[in-house]
Write a structure and sequence with these properties.
- By secondary structure, this protein is α/β, with parallel strands linked by helices.
- The protein is built from 16 helices and 13 strands.
- It folds into 2 domains: 179 residues, Rossmann fold; 177 residues, Rossmann fold (3-Layer(aba) Sandwich), CATH 3.40.50.
- The strands form 2 sheets. Strands 3-2-1-4-5-6-7 form a 7-stranded parallel β-sheet, sandwiched between helices.
- The longest helix has 19 residues.
- The chain is globular.
- The two termini are 16 Å apart.
Amino acid sequence: MQKYRVIISGGGTGGHIFPAIAIANALKALSPNIEILFIGAEGRMEMEKVPAAGYNIKGLWISGLQRSLTLKNLSFPFKLISSLFKAKKILKQFKPDVAVGVGGYASGPMLHVAAKSGIPALLQEQNSYPGITNKLLANKVQKICVAYDGMERFFPKEKIMLTGNPVRKDIRNLDGKKARGVEYFKIDPDKKTLLIIGGSLGARTINLAIEASLNIYAENDIQVIWQTGKAYFEKAKTACVKYADKGIYAHEFISKMDYAYAVADFVVSRSGAISVSELCLVKRPVILIPSPNVAEDHQTKNAMALVVHNAALLVKDFEAVDKLANEVLNLSNNIELQEKLKQNIAQLGKADAAEVIANEVISLIEK
């Protein structure tokens, strides 16, 4: 069997990294002797998460342009030149058969150099509104895998393939995991459990809303598994101390998300593309709070793709501190609404996206 070599580049947040790892795992399943090298941005979370998943990664000295005028932007041209040189060097050494870009800072230099060298390339766009990196690369690649309809507004129509977003394999099957999750999170299996996920880096508004209403959840016998992100963790951990006997715990980052979903009765989440894709597959009632700090308000668009199908509830970011606790309590007490949301969200999931994209990557090599 021929040994294929694949570069996967991109990262910055879990929304880029976890789909990349899902694609890599699907490629390994298709072709066990395939060699995969990840390219990330130095200092970003992919430099930790990718090796933890069992893959090699090299870092580029690259970051994004700030939207406002800032001194950090002055270093951008130097970082870009440095990254392009290093990407060329990696390309020469690794000799990939194909390059895959998942968005994020590192994707730009690597995919640009690969395409210029005649190496076939594929983009995976998670969101309903693409990031600047993928928009700039669209004309240089052969295939663009997307998760939403209507993406011909941004990309050449003939290159688009609607695949859905790749989701971690462990999340696709939660059967039998509730008991392990109960033990892992040290919670009561007979109490209702609320899972809070503001994204891999946390979400300030959600954190403020949860901290302000911990007493309400405690009084109503609702356990809380709260992923805070790094910046808010110490504050959240201190706030949770007096509620530990009520099953209310803060976590900086949850690595066993399959366990978290398995024990959750309902979920509060940002509406990043990967969170939405995961929620469709785990079939839990969800309250979405779109981040207002993203390009073209794409998280609201992601959320509305569920809300219009009565598959999720929505609370606006600026209303979260005042309204979220009441929404959680209403959902907790309304079994009929929970069932309706679960049934409707289940209709929107695409479980095989990683395999479909992996097949397309192999197809590009073989062409």
